[in-house]
Specification:
Layout (H helix, E strand, L loop, with lengths): L9 E7 L10 H9 L6 E7 L8 E6 L6 E10 L3 H16 L1 H5 L2 H29 L4 H8 L1 E10 L2 E7 L3 E6 L2 E4 L9 H9 L4 E2 L2 E2 L9 E2 L17 E6 L4 E7 L1 H4 L4 H15 L2 H14 L6 E7 L44
Antiparallel strand pairs: 1-2, 2-14, 3-4, 4-5, 5-6, 5-11, 6-12, 7-8, 7-13, 9-10, 13-14
Helix pairs in contact: 2-4, 4-5, 8-9
Amino acid sequence: MAERVAQGDASLRCLRVCGDTQKDGDRRKAVEAEKLPLRRLKVGVHADRASCSCMEDESVIHSPPSADFCFCCVYDGHGGLHAAQFCRERLHHNVMASESFARGDSQAALLEGFRKTEADLLREQDEEHTRRRQSPPSPQDDAQSCCGSTALVLLIRAEQLHLAWLGDCRAVLSREAAPVMLTRDHSVRCARERARVLADGGEVEDDRLWGFLEVSRAFGDLDSATGRKPRGLSGCPELASQPIEAGDEFVVIGSDGLWNVVDPADAVRLARAELQVYNDAAMASEKLVEVALKRHADDNVTAMVVCLNRIASPANPEVRRPRLPLLQRRSSRAAETPARPARSAPAPPEL
């Protein structure tokens, strides 16, 4: 299931896969079965364009009915919508189509999927660049051929969290209520990234690549003047994997519009409080965006909450009151992925 996040001021989608856990006389096996049955995985995502004139964030939640995996992806476009939309439609399919994915090598599959998506996007942008040289360009054409996108993909498979990312989208894990950073920003402010950029022939001005790019890794960004990516801007993702532990509660994935105003500790605290009371990933993601807007976020904001293990309710819970939905502007649309029935297929490999 791969659905497009609705364009507009705000969008909401929630994936819920519900079913009963398998019963087992062995207590240890019962605990393991309870750990992360993929059919009970809950993912919620909420997005808002904030004060920007257009929405350039995209997101994907993809978990086919009989699959043993789940893709959770956030894309943050810059310079236009096309690159983020291109990645949203193709990246997870390119990962699944790789031979490594069929063999169960998730990291190699993610790398191959990123490489193919980058090559396909650059080829399309180059063709557009060639077409524009042969006919008068329009502003829309220029944006389509020269824009780029950061990306963060979380693949949950075989009791593992597999991450691949470009740029400054971030993922933070809540482990027993404590924030654990799963990614780091790709920016020239990072000493290692700056060294790589300079070694690749890039230049740094005012803590930006070539004086205008805030990130040092991204999809696309074909330079219309040269017909290639700016030197130093890499399309090669950073990869990380780790097993899901008993204390791992949920992961928050967000575009930089969220992290510019909500730090990781705040994000974990806010999302955890919602999950403790409502056990609803969509409401938790909505809360994060709501707080970012109250803190005057000046960029598109996307927040995704991926629940791994249920959080125990507080010892002295407050009176449970229904939360009012975030007020949406007229142009906003919302969609919710319907719950799928429980599946009898064997439990998939999990993080």
